[in-house]
Amino acid sequence: MNQRPSSVSDAAILDAVDAAMENGDHQGLLGGVLPEHVAKHCALTAATLRSRLLTLSKRGELVQVDGCDTSDPAYAARKGYLPADHPDASSPYRLP
């Protein structure tokens, strides 16, 4: 069951990002988790999570990164999110 967006704390969303990372639900090519990945570990929809994840990245708690969505047959590039302290968030292979 999905909860009201305001009733889910930022800490719960960050925990869901960590859970998605630990579960291997992330993109290829140093990419982070997508809102759909986080939604598996949180009581919000992917659509609602998009804005919350962007807000957390603007506050510096997450880093928005480019990755490759390997579930897409065309391997489309998509923006994902990593915890700010994740080693791939500041990878030397990442473009500024």
UniProtKB/TrEMBL annotation:
Protein name: ArsR family transcriptional regulator
